[in-house]
Amino acid sequence: MNGLEQFGQDPWWIIAIKVLLVFVVCVVLTLFNIWWERKVVARMQHRIGPNRHGPFGLLQSLADGVKLALKEDLTPEKADKIVFITAPILACVPAFVTFSVIPFGPEVNFFGVETPLQLTDMPVAVLFVMAIASIGIYGIVLGGWASGSTYSLLGGLRSSAQMISYEVSMGLALVTVFLMAGSLSTSQIVAAQEDWWFGALLLPSFLIYCISMVGETNRAPFDLPEAEGELVGGFHTEYSSLKFALFFLAEYINMATVSALATTLFLGGWRAPLGLGTIWAGANEGYWPVLWFFLKMFFFIWVFIWLRGTLPRLRYDQFMSLGWKVLLPASLAWIVVVAVIKMTAIEGGFSPNWFLFGFGLAVTAVVVLGFLNRLPEKEAQVTTPAGGFPTPALPQGGAVRGAAQPLVFGPPASANGVRILPSPEEAK
Q: Over the stretch 56-107, which tens digit does the pLDDT of each residue have?
């Protein structure tokens, strides 16, 4: 069976095993990603990172989970207790559900039963992922509101504004994928990338999605809802113990979810890297595709970690301007371009792949060069000798705003430059 007919035919025990495997994969991915983030950031900062608990420190995340579970569970006095307890669950459960439509591989023989390595699929699978993922924002907003804290409330409001702003750009970036694949089913989108990955054909959409997925998951440099310098801890300031652990779990599962979705929609899903399938016939058969899928997904997760260790946090106005003034118009314009090229190719009877690849590459190059040209040029500072030794030039434009006044030794000077000597009483 091909297409969506292959789903829903499994015995009940196969479905139960798949559900259990999806849950285990989400939890193990969270534990591994926390450890990997610590190791990568430590490497970037010339540290060692976790190395005590287990081989290479792999059990450090598990030890932290046990520590969180044993901490005292506090509820603020002014909190709405029912909503305060429900909010972390509301944020965590949708994160698990979204993995149900992600294809990890083709059909395999599983205990004598031919079944796809995917829990389920549907004609609107990608729309289902985006809808379920947007439910998680209710947990963050309600958690911030129910805490009875100003910091938590502001963090929740920021998160809702951030979700709305970047969900629109992400959805529009995926429209071009639907145009090329002719379906919203994740398994059929993977099948449509047998010859060309959509990450190459639709390069602008791929880049817009990558930026939007960082903003959607509240990760640095877009972690404005939990900015420590402004909001202490943001929406989870008042949370502790297992409630805080559920928010933490939801964040890392969402990071894995958007990475898995990017792999499925733009990098061929479980298919082997381009060129490997031509020299090795079994690269896309059996359980090997599971390896290719996770290697691609871990690449995106590494990008998340790299951005966190490299870039500073954006200002809130810069972040919102990027979403509404740059990503949204670019997504709409690229949809029109892809639709025109595909319709022209259908009418002309030729393949639009090379045209899309070349045009997308040219547009991306022009945008990157335009961004680089807008960066301010650093003027060379000329050092002037002072007593035979070169001294750096003073900053131009006067004193830095907010800086302390320079120390003045001696009596103060009047407006005309004449020194005012202190009176005998002042001298005493």
A: 888 998 888 888 888 888 888 888 888 888 988 888 888 889 899 999 988 8
Phi-psi region of 408 (alpha: psi -120 to 50; beta: other; left: phi over 0): beta
d(CA 172, CA 166): 10
Separation CA 138–CA 121 (nearest Å): 25
Asked, for residue 14, whether it belongs to a domain, the answer is no
Domain that holds residue 263: 71-275+284-373
* Closest by Cα among 179, 25, 207, 12 to 99: 25
Q: What is the pLDDT of residues 201-242, one digit of tens each?
A: 999 999 999 999 998 888 878 877 666 666 666 777 788 888
Bridge partners (DSSP) listed for residue 110: 113
Q: Is residue 31 part of a domain?
A: no
Domain count, the chain: 1
| Three-class secondary structure assignment of 314-335 | CCHHHHHHHHHHHHHHHHHHHH
Cα–Cα distance list, 423 to 408, 412, 413, 418 (Å):
18, 13, 14, 15
Flag whether 126 is in a domain: yes
Q: Please report where in the chains the tokens 């090379």 appear, as a residue.
A: 354
Question: CB within 8 A of 195, min separation 6: which ones?
Answer: 353
As a whole number of angstroms, the distance between CA 247 and CA 225 comes to 13
Q: For 237, which DSSP code?
A: T
**What does pTM read for this prediction?**
0.83
Measured CA to CA, the distance from residue 333 to residue 321 in angstroms comes to 17
Q: Return the exposure string of 243-252: e unless at least 16 CB atoms fall within 10 Å of the residue's CB, then b.
A: bbbbbbbbbb
Tell me which residue has tokens 């979204």: 98
Q: Which of 185, 191, 176, 219 is closest to 360 using CA atoms?
A: 176
Query: Quick check: is 178 in a domain?
Result: yes
Q: Cβ contacts of residue 356 below 8 Å, gap of 6+? A: 201, 202, 338, 341
